[in-house]
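User: Now give one protein:

AI:
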Amino acid sequence: MVHSAAELSLFLKARRGSLTPEEVGLPDGINRRRVRGLRREEVAQLAGVSVDYYTRIEQGRSGAVSDEVLQALARALVLSADERRYLHNLAGNITRRSARAARATEPCTPPETPRQTVRPELRALLRSMAGTPAAVFGRGLDILAWNPVMGRLWPGLDDLPEAELNLPRLLFTDPAAAALHADADLLRGEVVARLRADTGRDPEEPRLCAVVTDLQRSSALFRELWETHRVEEAPHGAHRLRHPQAGELTLHFEKLPLPADPGQFLLVYAPEPGSPSEERLALLAAGQPA
């Protein structure tokens, strides 16, 4: 559904355009650059490949690319660990789907696809985490299940129709939902970077394609962020929330993959021990005013 050859080409161009010669240890040259970024010949030089070969890779005309060349490109473009995985995933998808890669200019046309379901055992686990906000997310960052304290932490979650239970959709199309997050712009960038990483892992996944396609049509901000080709998993970190009852909360989060349920992960929030956020979250979990 997401065409890996086209995505690889766009990703390489985006990364090349984000770097300066100084950042990779090259002289700026005597000729003024018309646009910011590295030239193709500079990337080829840094990676130790010919300009012609790099050009064919960037234009999606190279066919299979060896691991050695991919590693060299990753070093040349100063890729993060997440970006390196994305690069290898895209290249592997091209190798496995060379016949489809020839149709790289076709638009993504996702079929109607149902949301994933959550096993009863996972729902029981969520209920057992009485004082800890937790939720199960699925493909395309659908919000599939959550426990009561998570419902209190994200007000209105219990009342949303199933079609709207999607984190990117809420952040980009529901101002009230986005306003809960003190760092909404950072979270939007994080979510888009996660979706981009997911398309590298599984470009054929129809639910993921449907979410991305819908948001490209409905949100100019999503389109803008999507075109940056940022890739980041963000398996842990911290979120700041402005809760209407509990006030400001800073919560650490962990995203725990669920190996028995492909495409799903468990999001768990926890405050810093002894912090005001811990006290406020405890009151919220107990249903008491802060």
